[in-house]
Structure to design on (607 residues):
């Protein structure tokens, strides 16, 4: 039994026919639109003559030998054909191309004109103008020649013309270049040429300034955060900026116009630098070493390969075409390799991956436009000529946003780490039962204060020990004892100034430290000691039962009795112990001399 299948005989033929139509129809349309090979009517040059009209009148001759010049250009009409319909673009041409343009100057349109070819990456251009009476002018242009040899010191290639109304002119040219043969030819008035040049330089200045800001941003954050991603981003911005600075003719015009090595190398070196750093940037921001180790190794390996190509090209180990081939083949690799991983991370909610996808979407569309332009499939115009530059800037802005997100995430992680550290320190320095400082917390806070004290700002350190506290635990249980300790902590804090220190250093022992004493420090300290005794004068309530407590207080003064907390507590403890032996419930100052148990003042019982 024969089963029908969608790719069976009939369906297969239909699919094949559809494929052939999809391929042949555009080709037929281009062929039908292309002018024939016969000489075109001479162009009438006037104020309204457009670049498209000029291109339609242009005749080209391709496939010429490498040594072809104007002097040995074959004569006659054989081999000349109309320029393709892609205005200003002949596409890739490995061999020299000859140009011929005939025009008649319209009445009233004589005077000064400019012949402009606004594509600064062309290597070699020879032009010859034949005018009335056999008058001939010749010019040699191209970025392979020193900038000082140009007739007009401009970013674009241009020569001045003095044309007479009603006269016929013929322009012949030979062009050679290692890249695509993009030839946006115009005949314009000098004032229009200067205006267009100013606008082009202004646009490049704005774009270059944006890239410079991105570079400063990346370097500043990279220095502060020590993250490799910022370094790779900075290198990418540097390479991208140098590439467009050279590609748009500004480097030739302002920096390296007389340096042959720079004229030949800078554009490709910048492209290799930008592409290699892009591999490393994507590897870093997507954390491929954690999510996909093999992909991370691949990205780093390709970056290393491009670095080797950069060095070899700079030193003359490989020629321009080899470096160009490496750049063209590997240009889409960062996007193609990382896209599946970025898509999965974006679906999982990763903000970095989502931002990268937005940038790649814009850049991919603009890069496709640039590729079609370089292949000769799109006309040369403002948007097609600058699409790649605009798309690159958008992509770099999204990359900057990614770094911003990572910086915010790092900052948040740092804040959380500090909070966690502070919380752990607080837990380590806080008494869990009362919320007061414990012994470690007291030492951390009190030691710096004691180290700075002097006789003008005396500190008093009190050691408090409860009297009759053990019977409460024995008769009512430890919960009742804990309640008493918490209540006493609240009373002690209420009895002193908010800036004073109150701590529980163990069991029923408390410490109070204050610097708010009267001019007579000892008298002020005794007065505060009496207020502390009053905190237990009122019974503690336990479910309707009144619990009576007492306390004995010993204290020492800093700096009179010492500056070290441990020594002051020992003196205060000795005084407190002496007070308990003398009948409890008093306030005593510890001695500043050798015997720690010797009291400095007689005990003052609580009133």
């Amino acid at each position: 039994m024969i089963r029908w299948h969608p790719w069976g005989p009939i369906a297969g033929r239909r699919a094949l026919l559809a494929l052939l139509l999809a391929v042949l129809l555009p080709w037929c349309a281009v062929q039908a639109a292309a002018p024939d090979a016969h000489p075109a009517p001479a162009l009438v040059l006037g104020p309204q003559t457009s670049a498209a009209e000029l291109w339609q009148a242009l005749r080209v001759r391709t496939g010429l030998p490498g040594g072809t010049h104007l002097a040995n250009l074959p004569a006659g009409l054989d081999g000349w054909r109309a320029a393709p319909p892609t205005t200003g673009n002949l596409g890739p041409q490995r061999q020299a191309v000859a140009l011929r343009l005939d025009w008649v100057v319209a009445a009233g349109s004589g005077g000064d004109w400019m012949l402009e070819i606004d594509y600064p990456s062309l290597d070699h251009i020879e032009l010859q103008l034949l005018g009335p009476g056999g008058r001939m002018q010749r010019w040699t242009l191209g970025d392979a020649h020193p900038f000082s040899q140009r007739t007009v010191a401009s970013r674009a290639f241009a020569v001045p013309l003095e044309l007479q109304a009603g006269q016929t002119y013929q322009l012949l040219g030979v062009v050679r270049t290692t890249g695509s043969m993009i030839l946006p030819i115009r005949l314009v008035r000098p004032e229009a040429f200067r205006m267009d040049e100013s606008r082009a330089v202004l646009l490049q200045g704005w774009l270059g300034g944006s890239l410079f800001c991105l570079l400063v941003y990346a370097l500043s954050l990279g220095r502060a955060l020590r993250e490799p991603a910022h370094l790779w981003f900075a290198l990418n911005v540097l390479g991208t900026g140098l590439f467009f600075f050279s590609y748009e003719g500004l480097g030739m015009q302002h920096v390296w116009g007389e340096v042959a090595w720079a004229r030949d190398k800078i554009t490709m070196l910048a492209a290799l630098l930008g592409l290699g750093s892009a591999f490393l940037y994507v590897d870093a921001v997507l954390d491929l070493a954690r999510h996909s180790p093999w992909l991370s190794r691949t990205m780093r390996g390709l970056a290393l390969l491009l670095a080797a190509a950069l060095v070899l090209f700079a030193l003359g180990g490989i020629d321009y075409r080899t470096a160009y081939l490496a750049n063209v083949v590997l240009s889409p690799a960062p996007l193609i390799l990382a896209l599946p991983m970025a898509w999965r991370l974006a679906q999982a909610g990763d903000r970095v991956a989502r931002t990268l996808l937005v940038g790649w979407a814009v850049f991919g569309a603009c890069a496709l436009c640039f590729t079609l332009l370089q292949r000769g499939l799109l006309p040369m115009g403002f948007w097609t000529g600058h699409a790649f530059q605009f798309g690159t800037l958008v992509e770099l802005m999204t990359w900057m946003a990614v770094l911003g997100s990572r910086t915010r995430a790092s900052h948040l992680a740092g804040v959380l780490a500090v909070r966690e550290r502070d919380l752990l320190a607080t837990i380590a320095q806080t008494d869990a039962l009362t919320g007061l400082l414990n012994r470690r917390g007291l030492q951390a806070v009190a030691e710096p204060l004691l180290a700075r004290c002097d006789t003008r700002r005396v500190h008093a350190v009190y050691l408090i020990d409860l009297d009759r506290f053990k019977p409460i635990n024995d008769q009512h249980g430890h919960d009742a004892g804990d309640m008493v300790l918490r209540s006493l902590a609240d009373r002690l804090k209420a009895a002193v100034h908010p800036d004073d220190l109150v701590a529980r250093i163990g069991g029923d022992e408390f410490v109070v430290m204050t610097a708010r004493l009267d001019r007579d420090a000892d008298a002020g300290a005794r007065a505060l000691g009496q207020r502390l005794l009053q905190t237990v004068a009122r019974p503690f309530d336990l479910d309707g039962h009144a619990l009576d407590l007492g306390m004995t207080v010993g204290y020492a003064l800093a700096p009179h009795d010492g500056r070290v907390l441990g020594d002051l507590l020992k003196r205060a403890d000795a005084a407190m112990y002496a007070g308990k032996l003398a009948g409890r419930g008093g306030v005593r100052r510890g001695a500043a001399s050798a015997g720690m148990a010797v009291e400095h003042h007689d005990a003052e019982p609580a009133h």
Observations:
- The longest helix spans residues 382-429.
- Residues 437 and 503 are 4 Å apart (CA to CA).
